[in-house]
Amino acid sequence: MKVRRSVTALGRSREVMMTKRKAMGILLASLCAFIASSLWYSPALFGSQFLVLSGITASPAPDSSKIAAELLRNLLLSSVICWLLARYPAGNLKGALGFAGVLWLGFPFTLLSGSVLWQNVPIELGLIHCGDWLIKLLLMTATLWLVNRKAPVLGRLPVIGAVQSN
Fold first, then answer.
1. Rounded to the nearest 5 degrees, what angle is found at the Cα of 155, between the Cα atoms of 152 and 157?
2. How many structural domains comprise the chain?
C-alpha cells in the first residue's frame, strides 16, 4: 500500500509540474505573440500602411480595453495550440513549425482571403493581416513546443563526434 501511495503522489506531483509548465508556456506564448503583433502593426513595420489601407486614424494613446481583449485572445489561441500539441505532438521544432504553417493555411489564410474575395478588403491589407497571423502562430507554436517538450533521456543523447548508422 505504501508503494502505491508513493507512486500516486509522484504521479500527481509530475502532473502538477506539467500543468504549471503548460500554463507558463501559454502565458509566454501569448506575451510573445502580443509583442510581435504590436511590432508588426507599429510604424516601424506595417502600421502606416495598415492605417492608410483600413481608413482609420491612430489614436494618441492605446485603448486599455482593446489591449486587454487582445491579450485574452492570445491566451485563448495559445491554450488551443497547447491543447492541440498535447494531442498531436510534434517530434521536433521543425515539425512544430510545420504544424503552425498548417494551422495558418487552414484558418487565418483561408478566412482572410475570403474577406479579400467577398468583402472588397484590399489585398495589401489582407497580406498584412496574413503575415501577422503567420508570425503569431509560428511564435506561439514554437514557444509552446520548446517550453513543453519532454527532456531527453540521458542514455539516448547522441555522442558528439560519434558516427550514426541508418
1. 55
2. 1
Alpha-carbon gap, residue 43 to 58, rounded angstroms: 10
Cell matching residue 161:
563526434
In-domain check, residue 11: no
Whether residue 74 lies inside any domain: the answer is yes
Vertex 99, ends 93 and 104: CA angle to 5°?
130
Is 31 inside any structural domain?
Answer: yes
In angstroms, the CA 120 to CA 52 distance is 15
pLDDT digits (tens, 9 = 90+) for 15-34: 566 688 899 999 999 999 99
Q: Kindly report the CA angle at 129 between 127 and 130, in degrees rounded to 5?
A: 60
Domain of 141 in residue numbering reads as 17-147
User: How far apart are alpha carbons 27 and 31 in whole angstroms?
Assistant: 6
Q: Is 24 among the domain residues? A: yes
Helices vs. strands in the chain: H and E counts, helices first = 6, 0
Residue at 48: amino acid letter = S
What is the value of pTM for the model shown? 0.79
